[in-house]
Design brief:
- This protein is α+β, with helices and mostly antiparallel strands.
- The two termini are 85 Å apart.
Length: 412
Amino acid sequence: MKSRLGAPIVRFSPSPEGWRAQTGADSCVGTSIGELVGKIPAHLRAELLVPSSAIVTEHLTLPRAPREDLVSMAQLQLEKLLPYTAEDFVFDIEELGFVGEDAQILAIAVPLSELKTCAEPLRSSKMGPVAVGVYAIQLARTLVSKGKVLAIWKEGEHVFLLLTADGKLLWIERLAVEASMPDAAEVQRVLLGAELSGVLPERLDRACVGVPEWANAIREALPGLEIEETAVEPRHEISGNWLPSLWADEASALSRKSRMLERLQWAAIGYAALLAAGFCWLAFEKSRIAKLDQKISELQPQVEVAKARQNRWKNLEPAVEPSRYLIELLHQSSKAVAGVDIRITEFQMNPREFAFSAEASNVAEAIEYVGRLKKEGELAAFKVDSPNPNILPNERAQFRVTGKVDGNASKK
């Protein structure tokens, strides 16, 4: 059987072949639930419809009361009528109507031993069940739009007949049939029992017959009744509280685990998408870097030519820049003397710097002279510096001035 993303619930219900597993529009049949469990995806959760052969029904007349009180009173009555304690069965009631101050009730019980036998393959495979219902009740709910209905169908080797009115189960009984073929006498016997119990409607609207060959028996037993020769499958949501409390806790834990797994799956998908986006971004950046490297390699010869040209101009700068001629530097050095008693005694120069020694009549004049040199605009290409002057024996100040080419100053 195929799994469907939109239908994580698979419903196990009785069928003429034994059992049917259905999820959405997909279904498969088998002789047992254990056989079907091996055919479906393990991650699905299961709902179980208990077969009609497993239920016990009792018609009760109780004082008129709210439903909660009717359930409590029905439980006390069932403990008296059935060979079970309250812990040994699960049950629910159908409120059939009121007669004066009395309420007509159909109590439906399922022994836990029968329920465990049906659900054991599901519980051992960790599929649940997350919900339990009764096949006959669900069938009655499905027939709600058809009014008062007699339905006859087959579950495995057994044939069942039920009466329902407005979706409520009134009566259910297994037919004693030979060769799986009910006869009119057997149908009349069941209807007589329902009439004596006071639950047979005065008028039936139609009969739903699961096997066309059975229609003649219904026509003979109920002449003139409209017959639908079609199998009816229960499709309503499960009605009633048939899940034992311990199983309900397990189903809740299973549901939480399923939701957690779903969140983890979405987180894994998101993480994978994030990784994929990261790898795409890295691939894009790598491609862009490769293109930049290729562009740089294409421009590298031009860069080398530009660098060589720049170096040549730097080497030629002392020869082509008038402010760096020897005569110009001597002129600027002499001009800064400004008529004071300063004598230049030695002058040296190379392409990157100039230096000279001089004497001044005193230290103050030497310092002022160096200050004028630093402010001289024609010497802006040089960084002028001078250590502290030395005092000669004749009390004159001897000092030395250096001017190194200042790359930052030349750019300005």
